Fold:
Amino acid sequence: MTPEAKAREQIDQKLVAAGWVLQDMKQLNLGAGLGVAVREYPTDTGPADYALFLDRKAIGVIEAKPDHTILTFVEDQTARYAFSALKWRMQAEPLPFLFESTGQVIRFTDGRDPAPRSRELFHFFRPEYLAEMLSHPDTLRGRLVARMPALPERNLRDCQVSAVTGLEKSLALNKPRALVHMATGAGKTFTAITSVYRLLKFGGARRVLFLVDTRNLGKQAHQEFMAYTPPDDGRKFTELYNVQRLASSTIDPHAQVVISTIQRMYSVLSGEPIDESAEDVSLNEVQQSPRQAKVVRYNPDLPVETFDFIVIDECHRSIYNLWMQVLDYFDAFLIGLTATPDKRTFGFFKENIVAEYTYEQSVADGVNVGYDVFEIETEVTKKGALLAAREWVDHRDRQTRKRRWAETEEDSAYTGKELDRSVVNPSQIRQVIQAMKTALETTIFPTRKEVPKTLIFAKTDSHADDIIQIVREVYGQGNAFCKKVTYKAEEDADTILSNFRNDYNPRIAVTVDMIATGTDVNPLEVLLFMRDVRSKGYYEQMKGRGVRSLGFDDLQRVSNSADSAKTRFVLIDAVGVEKSLKTESRPLEKKPGMPLKDLLQGVAMGHRDDDTVLSLANRLVRLAKQLDEKAQKRIEKASGGVPVGELGKALLVALDPDRIVATALATAQVRGITRIEGTLTEGELQEARNQRVAAACLPFDAPELRDQIEGVRGEREQLIDHVNLDQVAFAGYSAQAEDEARKVIQTFSEYLATHRDEIAALGFFYQQPYQRRALTFEMIEELHDHLSRPPLMLTTERLWSAYARVHASQVKGADQKRQLTDLISLVRFASGMGAAEGEQAELRPFADEVDKRFADWVFRHNAQRATAFTPEQMDWLRLMKDHIAASCAIERGHFNYAAFAAKGGLQKAWGVFGEQLDPLMDEMNMELVA
Structure:
């Protein structure tokens, strides 16, 4: 068989699979089906390899070439047939649909596009799809050029406008892949939904696939689609278009948007069922090998034209490697959304970055908040410890958590990295939690009456349980105060997450992976890392849980004592996560020691390659020899009565070549096909192999079984080290936080110097003493408004914290609630005012300064008069002093305020001071403020 004949054989098979009726010229019957492909159809420039007819009308040609032909080099030949006269054809216009194929590779050009450009297809289109394309007066790409109206910018941030318009420009240029880089919290999903709405309504898109990383993020995306109201229609998105969150193997034919994980979409394509739990873990967290790459075959129930656009939310490195064929299968534009791109992301999207909005820009614009790093280091975390032999300690079963009191058999030295895996040191956890509590109450959020919403990242579910118990104990709180938010939580995880986001309790949540990426919890102000993270991208996503801004009213709704909008979050690093070496992405080369957890998860997600199946089989057979009877029985119960060793043997037997042949022969016999071993086709053997492996892997769909196996891997028990008591070696802001504080102070100083002549309040401070005019509260408000707006974001709280960090010995009152008038003290301190010659300046709350000046003023006043102020007069003067401390000045109109009115108001004050009242107020305004 010649190479071209072999190519034609493969083309024939693919055309038939796509629903075309295949004919030779001699058997021509254009009424045999909707779509008919005729071989060697005569034209005036020679026979076309294939002429495509739709409802009896010629609509395209296929040029067949042998394998290894570069198809873009033969596009002119195909185009020649498009303009040739086909025998017996009455139509005058050129044929619109042009294909070139080697059988392995297919390229397609739609001649009706504005600038026709060929693109590669996974498979030929179905005739029904080409008929639908011809039913429209223009093409999808034509509509993207000519029919997309200007974007209404109302209620959209600048970065969202830039992303939508940039994407539409890219699509109009027919660029197949586009990347939107937007910081977490900037509204990526809202932006994507805005684009999807416009593509459906104006671009005439038939269906959009919205790919998410986990099932939980799929729920969140579905909720955002349901909540979205377009700017040109009062109805919700889901009232206008059908949105399906895919949870089965069937795509609703009426759905215009399908939300799915890539694992679920592969399951639908391959016909291999997966358990929902396989969608609960981010692909970013599962180690995989190149041999596990997804092999995709054509599925006529889900043809390549199913989706016009694929939106990939948080496009992780796994999508570009093992799962890339799932994306390549569909003839669709790919739109990537990410907050944490790496080199691989840019490469996959062909460096077509249509919008870029970094975290730093989002902080400058006030969309997100910045963060400080607070470090906690304990002796055991840093150095580990030694459990001596014959020491009586608890031994805890990893799975049941049942304890037994026994002696250690030998010396057991452990490092900080082994903590909470083979050894648990409750003192280490307790010291970290106590140090966090102390820091939050005295240094980080000293004015808060309740614990700021805090998320703790734990290593494992067992570690999370230990943390929860100690948090409740250290804080002296009940169960509602601290909850576990993981996929294995005993309570409904979605309910706990909703309560954490919207209600007063829980104040502290502990997670392993469920809210590490993507999930929105805007009131979060503290992230405590008690696990290390090696992936740079994953770490940035975890930090992203804290960056979202929140208004004062919304923050106060869940944190009652908050005195401003959310201005920052604090990352508390208890494991050195900020300093540990990070990689762009986890390497994909094969590692001999792939963790058992990842093998189990991989099988559950549909990995069926020989390498994975054999590795898991051997690991299970080996594990069966190591486990005690109790552990064996727990696994047997979870597997429905199959011992762990038998589970491993079943995987090995599934790959036995002789048994695969036997299964293939039996299947052929059932189908009425006569076969012997030598005549079995490669496809029949592969089908038999896949059938056997799928049956052997079926038990691992159950998360309970995977948990039991994972729970007993390695050592069966953890040692509970009550002997080595830990202590905090260091607790304080990191050097990075101090550098940031210095930048804040420098920005503030530069702003004061630059704008001293423009803002009234600054003029008050920088003019000579005898030329000063009264400083009003309105002036301070104006200055605060200028400072607190983006890009400066210099709130009084942030400035005071920065000075407290850099000039700790000179700053007083850092634990007090900030007043707007504290800005007066900040300006004085930054400008070098207020310190006597030779003395070091101090930054004190404005109210403290007013108190001190008031005491000095009263002393001088009484010393200069024959009679001192009476007790009643002093009561009124203290009221006036407190009002100046809060409002910069006192005048007659202020006596209508509640504090004065309760004592009789201006009339009573006049009765107490007489005509001296006005001179006294002027004197106090000058002495206490100037």
About this structure: The radius of gyration is 36 Å. The first strand starts at residue 21 and ends at 24.
